Amino acid sequence: MESSLPISDRIWFTSFSESPIGMAITDLQTGLYVEANEVYCKWLGRNREEVIGKTTIDLGIYSNLSDRDVILSKLKKDGFVLNFEVPLVTKTGETVTILFSGKIVEGGKYLLSAGQNITALKEKENLANALQKELKISKELFESVFRLNPAAVSLSNAETGRYDDVNEAYCRLIGFSREEIIGRTSHDLNIWITKLDRARLMAEVQKKGWSTGMEASIRMKSGEIRHVVSGNTLLNHDGRVTLLAILIDITEAKQNKEALEFAVKERTKELNRILDDLQKTQDQLILSEKMATLGQLVASVAHEINNPLAAISAFSEQLQNRLGDFGVRLMEIRECMGKYSNADAEEIIRWISELFKVKPKTHSFSETRKIKKNLESLFSSANIDSPYDLADRIVDLGVSDYILENTNFIEKLKNTPILSIILNELHALRSIESIRLAVERTSKIVYSLKNYGRMDRGSAKMPTNIVETIETVLTLYQNKMKSGIECIRLYNANPVIPGYPDELIQIWTNLIYNALQAMHFKGKLTVQVEETNTDVEVSIKDNGPGIPTSIQKRIFEPFYTTKEKGEGTGLGLGIVKQSVEERHKGQIRFFSEPGHTVFIVSIPKL
Fold it and tell me: Residue 375: which of 354, 395, 397 has the closest Cα?
C-alpha cells in the first residue's frame, strides 16, 4: 500500500521503511496513523494494515493514558519531544518500553514519531538496581533475622563444630548463656542425648548441603530433656564454611499429640467396653421394663457412638500424618516469610492470627457460588496460582467473608505458597475442632447411658435437676428421632428438686417412647417444663392419633397393653404412676383427642 502523503519536506522520510528504529507519521488533526514502518508495527505486535488509519486510542497502546497527555503537552509547548520513556501495550497484552522522540512537521500538519525499544535495557537496569539494594541490606537483614528469630539459631564452624554465634532463643533452649556457648562445641556442652543424633544430622548435611525436618532430643544445662526438629544448611560466612542450624522446640506439641492419641485410645476402649456390656446384658434384662427399653436403645446408641468415634479416628490420623511433615512445613514458612520486610511479615502474621480466630460461616448454595466467583476473580487479578481451588478451600473452611473483607493482603501473598500453607494449617485447626465436638458428643452419650443404667432405688432422695434427667432420655433417643421427629423443648424453668434420679429417668423414658411409638416416629414431640411456688410441672405432648376413649380409663392398669405381642409388657405406665404418686408424692394426668395427646407430671418441690 503506497502512501499518498503530500509532504514537501522529504528529508524527514528518507529511508523511512528501511530505518532500524521505529518510525511513524500521525495526522495531528485526526490523530490517525498515516504511515508506520515495520519496526514500529513490530513493537505493537501488529502488521502495517492494522495500524494505518487507526489512532493510539483505537489501538489501546498506552499503558498509562497520562503518558499520552504528557507527550501532547510537550509537543504543543515545544514542537518536539526528545527521549521520553513510555510503556506501550502490544496486541497480545505484553508491555514494551520505548525511548520516544517526536517532532511536528509540515507546518503543524503531521507528527513524525521515532523511537527505540529499550525493554531489555530497562529490565537489566531494574535488575541491577534491585541487586544493588539487596546487597546493601542483606547483611543487616541477616543480622536482624538471626537475632530476632523466635526459633533457636546457631552458627558454627563446619569443620571444628565450635560455635561462632547463637541467638537469644538458642540460649533459652539449651539453658546456657551466650558467653558459655561461644567457642565451645555441642559435645563440650553435652547437649546431645546420643552422639548418633548429631552424626546423623551432619551426614545428611554433608551429603546434600542441607537437611530439614530431622527430630532429635537434647539435654538442657539443667538436665531437662527437650525434643526439637531441626533445619540445617552450609553457607559461606566470613570467608569459611559455616553450619547454620535452626532448632524448633516441639516438646509441648509432641506431648500434646501423645496425650491426644492416648485419650482417644482410652475413650475408644471405654466406649467399646460400654457397647460390649450393653450387648451382653440386653437378653438377660429384657424382662425388666427398664432393660427392655434399654434393649430397644442399644442399636441406636451404638450408631450414635460409632459416628463420633469414626470422626475422631479419621481426624486424629490426619493430624498424625500432618505432624510428621512438620519440619518441611517450617522450612516452607521460613522461605516464604524471608521474602517480606519485617513490617510486612508482622502485618501478615497479625492477619493470619485474626483469620484463625474467625468463626466458620456457611452460606446458601447460591451465595456460595457467588462467593467462589468473587474469590476466584480476586486471586486471578492478583496472578495467584490455582484461583478456583483456593476459592473452593476457603469457602469450605468458612472464612470467605474475612478474606473478601481483607483483600489488601492478597497482593502480598502472591508468588509464594504462603496462602496454601495457611489454609492447610486452618484445615488442621478445623480437624481439632471436629475432634473436640466428637468427644463432647460421645461424653454426653456416655453420661446419659450411665444415668439411664443406674439401678439405685435407695430410700433417700437427692437433689435432682429435672431438665438434665429429661435430656438424658432425649439424648438416648436422638437417633430414633432425627429421621422424622421434630422435638421442641420449652424449658421455661430449670428446677432442682429432691427426687430419685433413676426413677425420674424411667418416667420420662416411658412417656417419651410411648409418644414416639404413637406417632410411628413421624411427627412433633413437645417437652415443656414449668415451675410454680410449690410444684414442678413437666408436659410431654405428641400429635399422634390420640388414645381411644374406650381404653383411656385402663391405660394405667398393670399388664394392660394395646401393643403387639413382644412389643410391651403393659407395666410401663403402671410403673410411672406408682413412681410419681407413691415415691415422689406427685400427680400424673393426661388429655387426649385425635391428633393430640399430652401427659402432665406434677412433682412437689419439697
Answer: 395
| 554/563 Cα distance (integer angstroms) | 14
Q: Which helix (H) or strand (E) holds 453?
A: helix 418-453
**Residue 503 grid coordinates:** 426413677
Consecutive H or E run containing 473:
helix 466-476
State the CB neighbour count (10 A cutoff) for residue 112.
21
From residue 235, give the alpha-carbon distance in Å to each of 154, 171, 227, 243, 504: 12, 22, 26, 7, 75
Question: Could you tell me if 112 and 23 are in contact, meaning their C-beta atoms sit under 8 angstroms apart?
Answer: yes
Phi, psi of 127, rounded to the nearest 5 degrees: -65, -40
* Helix/strand/coil (H/E/C) assignment for every residue in 280-346: HHHCCCCCCHHHHHHHHHHHHHHHHHHHHHHHHHHHHHHHHHHHHCHHHHHHHHHHHHCCCCHHHHH
3-state secondary structure of 435: helix
Residues 384, 520: Cα–Cα separation, whole Å: 56
Q: What's residue 9's pLDDT?
A: 42
Three-class secondary structure of residue 96 per DSSP? strand
> Residues for the chain: how many in total?
606
What rounded mean pLDDT belongs to the chain?
79
**Cβ atoms of residues 68 and 48 within 8 Å:** no
What was the pLDDT predicted at 132?
65
User: Which pTM was predicted?
Assistant: 0.34
Q: Which helix (H) or strand (E) holds 80?
A: strand 80-89
Grid coordinates of 255: 506431648
The answer to whether 91 touches 45, Cβ cutoff 8 Å, is yes
What percent of the chain stands above pLDDT 90? Answer: 17
How does strand 523-531 pair with strand 485-491? Answer: parallel
Sign of the alpha-carbon dihedral angle for 44, 45, 48, 54: negative
**What residues have CB less than 8 Å from 102, skipping those under 6 apart?**
71, 75, 80, 81, 111, 112, 113, 114
For 516-584, give the DSSP string: HHHTTT-EEEEEEEEE-SSEEEEEEEE-SS---GGGGGGTTSTT---SPTTT--S-HHHHHHHIIIIIS
Instruction: Give CA–CA dist 590/577, Å, rounded.
Output: 12
Q: Note whether 249 and 228 are within 8 A (CB).
A: yes
3-class SS string, 26-65: EECCCCCEEEECHHHHHHHCCCHHHHCCCCHHHHCCECCH
- Is the CB of residue 297 less than 8 Å from the CB of residue 304? no
Helix (H, G, I), strand (E, B) or coil at 155: strand
Q: Which helix (H) or strand (E) holds 212?
A: strand 210-219
Band the pLDDT of 201: cuts 50, 70, 90. confident
* Distance separating alpha carbons of residues 323 and 542, to the nearest angstrom: 51
C-alpha span between 163 and 181 (Å, rounded) = 7
8 A C-beta contact, residue 394 and residue 423 = yes
What is the pLDDT at residue 5?
Answer: 41
Task: For residue 145, give the nearest of 402, 388, 337 by alpha carbon.
Answer: 337
